[in-house]
Every structure is written in structure tokens, then in C-alpha cells.
Amino acid sequence: MYEVARLAGVSHQTVSRYLRGERLRPTTRERVDAAVKALDYRPNQLARSMRTRRTNRLAVVLPMPKTFPLRLLGAASAAAHEADYQLELVSVEGGPEARSDRVRELAESGRVEGILSLASLDADIASRASVPVLTTGDYDDKMRGLGLLADGSPVVDIIEYLVSLGHRDFLHVAGAQTWASARNRKVVYMETIERLGLRSHGVVDGDWSARSGYDAVGSLPDDTEVTAVIAVNDTVAMGVVRGALERGWQVPRDLSVFGWDDDEIARFATPSLSTIAIDREAQGRDAMLRLVAAVRGEPVPEPGVGSINQLVPRESVGPPRPGPAPARRD
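RESULT FIELD:
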């Protein structure tokens, strides 16, 4: 750091301020930046952390996933960077015990100043760790959504919206019942149908695949009275649309279709897919800001995210057709 200061013609305190990201005169910042690049200077983070007990690094711990929750993690990372922290991502195989052991190692390593876990940990770990540890509990051991991600209440909004268009006859294509989100949406669907005095023509327990939606529509009789299908996600809904088209039914003239997730491809499909948009970015940002507050010794706010779901009607829904569905094309 002293070498950088000599080359830039500034004090070592100015270089320190530069490295902390503090405000400097533009000309001063340019000289220090040029010196850092010329000397290929990299701060010794371990030495710095031993002296100041600060590393400006946070960790996010999650179960070993098949796919990463990229939108949530991207927003959490952006919030960390805005607060002048780098983010370390740690995925751990096993359940709460294995994750808790890894969190204890991280906390004692001196590498990070705070830890955010997206899945459950041992109950006492936060009180015993040497750095702040926050748990969101958004996922289980297999990265299946819990909490807000498994909230089934937006099914009520879907059904009430379709009822406002005149629909009374419904079909639900569910997801694998090992997922809390699929179970919750199925339960809310059945409760809402009964509460509003509507007609359900079945619940098909699918597997989150487009094929399950396609097969569900294919199994309907030619004279079905179903006018609206509520699919557990956008992928299943796309299968429903394809199955309807192959039967000679138009969407939404003959069959209205609702999905869930607001996948990008659903927005550009023909017809564009009605869905429930999930604000995973708000969830990740909120969790990271709470961790940053804990690290800085500030009051940790209550979770600021209420519902992360929003009803998004698009071209795939419309008023119900009059009478039964048209017969299957040969």
C-alpha cells in the first residue's frame, strides 16, 4: 500500500480510503487507480481481517441444488455489493446438521462477517456463532420452496378473476405432492371451489412437466364442460395449451389457461400466458439487507416482504365459451 502511495504521489491514508471505496477527488482517484493497476496490487484480505476483524465478505449457504435460485441470489448479491460487501456462495449436501456444521466452520474461519442460510439450521446456532447468522427458511433440504415461495393463496385470486369473466367449470393440474407449494395450491384450489359454489372437474396430480398438462387436457371427454384450467406452473400450462390446440380447441376461446411463475418464455408465447409473477428479487434483497444490518450492529428490521406474488392476466384467458367444448378433430 505504501508503494502504491509513493507511485501515485499521495499518502498511504489516501490509498486506504481508496480501497475502502470512500469518496476522493476524481484526479486523485485516477492516480491511485493507475498506480494500483501498474503494481498489480491486491490487498491482503487475511492480514486485514486479522488486524481489523473485517473482511467485507458475507456468505450465503444453501442446500446442494439441481438448479440455483438465480433471481433471488442475484438480488441478494446486488444488495451486498451496494453495501460494500462481497458475497461467497456455499452449497452443502445433507440436512440441517450438515449445513449447521458448515456454518460454524465459516463463522470461526474469520473469512466472513455474516452468514445467510436459505434453509433451516440447528436452533441454537445463531446465538452461539461468532458472527451474525440469519436463516430465511425459504427452501428445504432438496431446494423445494417453503414459506412465501409455497404460499398457495394466489390461487384464490386466479379463481376469482376467472369467475369475474364468467367461468364456473374448472380443472386443476397439480405438481408433485412432495412439494409444499404444490400441496398448498391444490388445497386452496379445492377450498375455493367449494366456498364459491363452483364446479371442479378434477385435480390431476402431475409432475411439473409440460407433458402432465398435455396429458391432462387429452384425458378430458369431447363434451367436457371445463372452460378454465389452472396449472401449477407455466411449464405445465404450456403443455395444457398445446394439448388444447391439438384437440382443435382455441385458447382462450374454448379454454382459458392460467400458469404460475411468470417464466420469460410464457410472456412471448402465442397466446401469451396468464400467470402468477413471483418477486424473488424482493425476497433476496430483503434478506441481505437484514443481514447487513446485523453485521453493522444496527437494528435488524422485520422482513419487509409481504406477498411476493402478483396476478398477471394475459392473452390465454377470456370469457367462457357457450356450451360444451368442440369435438376433437380427426
